[in-house]
Amino acid sequence: MIDVSIIIVNYNASALLVEAVRSVVDLTKGVSYELIVVDNHSSDLSLLLDAQQTYNLRLIRLDDNLGFARANNEGIREARGRHLFFLNPDTRLLNDAVSVLSHFLDANLEVGACGGNLSNAQGAEQFSYWPLLPGARMEWNELWSNLWLRLRHRSSLKFNHTGRPKEVGYIIGADLMTRAEVIRQVGPFSDDFFLFYEETELCYRIRRHGYKIISVPQAHICHLESQTIGSMLERQTYMMPSRQTYLNKTTSRLEHRLADAILTLNCLLRLLFFTLTANKQKQEFWRYRLRHVKVEKLKVES
Fold it and tell me: What percent of the chain has pLDDT over 70?
């Protein structure tokens, strides 16, 4: 049986994806694996078709852009591995991370999902996980610039400097590995998400079934974050609706309203600060978040 099914969702990022696939082929030595690429109706498939022949990957071509969650689910349906590794196209393995994560799952049956440490092209740490799941508690911490979380986790708030496996709230979807058996138990990604929060909601369900979510710092991966999405505001156009979908699915109506109220206060305070400091880019960002949370709040209360 195949150890790991590596599932990569592509949308107009074929050049990046080919580099990601090349790093998998060059560095994965300790496990058997298959490569599954799900293409969300990209405009140019020439590089992918070449890679299909060169690297013997399985290419699933969709007739429309279904988003990250539904496209990954198409890959899950075709997967034959004991473990499923969801890898972004804008990543590069820096070591045999696939084997490290797969062996970790085999040795720790109480763990439902895991991921490695992410760094950028210059080697600086990238957002790899977060200690809390979204909700009122997370919004309260962010209101205070995560002061209490920083005091508790110190340098390992979002990147594991401890050198040891660390239990976290969720792993970001750039490099999330789980067991096929766990997916059979908890279900695949929710089709309600188009982009963002789908991996967070999956980790929520995995935790609800009694499994742990673990950061494994021995797995090293380069993540060229936002290379496939665009500007900060463009990210928010996907992120804010997905945030509301996540809260709708995982929190009570009371907690949802409380989380939105705290976020609204945070937006107002940040907007005031960046107005006083004449930072127009940050003003635009927080004004957009404030406007969007008000719109989504009306939907929740209607």
Answer: 95
